[in-house]
Amino acid sequence: MTVWAIVWAKLRAAGSWCKANWKWLLPPVALLVWYFTRTKNVTVASGAVVDHDAVVLDANKKADAAAAEVNNSAANALKEISKEHGAAVAELDEKAKDDADKALVSPEATNEFLKSVSAGIRK
After folding, report:
1. pLDDT digit string (tens) for 9-59?
2. Per-domain residue ranges for the chain?
3. Which one of 31, 42, 80, 81 counts the least CB within 10 Å of its CB?
4. pTM value?
């Protein structure tokens, strides 16, 4: 019980000091009240912001797949065009060889062949 008596005596001394010096206590108490009651700016992220990276990654995967498909179709189209071009060139070469062979039959045919070739070059 003596401990309580000592604590009671100290509290009474602190109380009398607080009554005498209340002007010194007011600013720190007001500052503490302001600090603990102020509104804190807390930003809460929505689910859309949190899932943004996953959505972007998914969109990038879809775009890469679509780009690969377009590139494959373009490559296939170029191969097809190349085959058609090669066939057309071979056909024209064969026709030119046939015309040249026909031109060797007589000098007049050779002359006509050379005239047609030179006329084609001038155009």
Report:
1. 999 999 898 889 888 888 998 999 999 888 777 776 666 666 778 888 999
2. 1-41
3. 42
4. 0.42
